[in-house]
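COMPLEX REQUEST
Ligand: phosphoenolpyruvate
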Amino acid sequence: MTTVRHEPHETSAAKILTGIAASRGYASGSAVIFRTEQELQISDFSLSPDDVSAELERLENALALTRIQLQSLSQELEKRISGNEAAVLNGQIMMTSDPEFLAPCRKLICDELQNAKSAVWHTTQHFTRAFAAMNDPYLRERGKDIEDFARRLIRNLSGGGEDRIARFTQPCIVVADDISPGETIAMPKDKILGLVTEKGSLTSHSTLLARALGIPAVVGVANCLKEINPGDELLLDGVSGKVIHNPGASERKAFTKVVSHSKSFQTFVEEGRQLPGSTSDGHPVPFLANVSADCRMTDLPKVAAEGIGLYRTEYLWLSLNREPSEQEQEEAYTAAVRSLPLGNVTTIRILDLGGDKLLRGEGGTEPNPFLGNRSIRYLLKNPDVLRRQFRSILRASSHGKVQVLYPMIATIEELRAVNLELHRCMTELREKGIPFDDQIKRGAMIEIPAAALIAGTLAKEVDFFSIGTNDLIQYTLAVDRSNSAVSRLYQPTHPAVLQLIHLTVQAAKARGIPVAVCGEAAADPIFAALLIGLGVNELSMAPNLIPLVKRVIRQLPYAELQEIAKEALSRQSDSAASIATACRNRLINLVPELLYLR
Ligand code: PEP
Ligand code: MG
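STATUS: Structure written out below.
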């Protein structure tokens, strides 16, 4: 994925370095090299038993200092950004008092007479190894946060020392091996035009922060530190993931054109930000948000989200690494419900643990976790967990409009069993006089091909469908959604996928229930247009993508979308790529700005 391509040019020695487009935007300027942190010096010397209590005290002092540093960085961040990313250091702050991390450190000091730095480092390695083995790239990145925390703690045990402070006098593009969240925050924003790093991924916290701070970034650029020298001229394209090194006149000219198109596109998107979702001729298309527990719900009005279309509850489990108590769940769900204007719905999906979302220490026992004891299968085998979750959701439903969503439904028996459990929990609360919404709507996710094929039967037992394209595509095409080696085969416009969506919509229509789509494909404006044409009623996506997709849909007449969808469905023997191109071409005629969408 990360290659260095040498492109000869008549007048320049330009080279194109390719990496991951991590934070959208463009920058041109000269390079400043931000040097790698020195390897940590950790000696393994043993303590004498007499020194143990002093060493424990040293650890406590370093923890206190670490907490103060992190809190002050966090406050600085709160001032500069308002998204979820402002909470990026919360996990590290919590680690300063996390017994799961600190108990083994203290034990190594007390029982094995290890010095504090060595104890911290050994414990950290135990954790980072466990995270590195996880499939979910987001969770793998959380291991790096632990390492980042440990490095800071060890620096403080060594007598202090802040983050590598970037002291730049001129605006520049920073080139580094990797950058920690603390370093990203500490950078003078007015001097940083862009970031290029050798390491990093789409989900690393520094990348999330760069996005939130609006710093264009390309990460995972192999050998960039070898290729680029201080002062070299760079053109950074954070949309396509390219860095042009030592550009000539023609590269500069082409780059200026791309930047100007991008600005016009951004203006186009911003124009419709607060308008309601609909087609150009007034066919309503509500845009809802996909969220999880760590999301700042207060940001939803900024993108005019008309509710929560998917609350992924498993992240509560993952962040605590255990089942949250009924009270913890109730508080989290109620907070989400209360954060929305009255009348906006919160769609709470019951636990979708399994697959690539596993608790630490509980993975690795199934040969194929995506086809194993995942989600609804786990819940029906562990009805107490399901009941605790249902009771919490029901309690939250007394504070606003809530609907409950069942993931991974493959059979009518599962659907009936889970409905029965919900019914039992409602009876239990009613008998105890606990308030809840007894008209609460129940929905099934359609994310397994079998569910789409029996959608007519399922529709009789629920109030709505929500299509999970992430899994529907994975299971239909037998393509692991998280395996980059087969990502070219992961094709939303494959005729089989379109047929399954069509079947689902038809079954829902026949029964008079609405269909939402909450998979990532809904956030691709071209696919979203196709979905609306296919008869999907609402779209749910990551909040920051709502303005873009909504703006495009607001330009399109409904009848035209139906035509485009009809044509796509009729192309049964065409490739996914040619179906996608045909849709794109027709849509570009209606929304020329799509030309500039990259
Ligand atoms: C989906 O499968 O499309 C979906 C929204 O669920 P998740 O991504 O959480 O599996
Ligand atoms: Mg899914």
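REMARKS: The CA atoms of residues 261 and 596 lie 6 Å apart. The chain has 22 helices and 17 strands.
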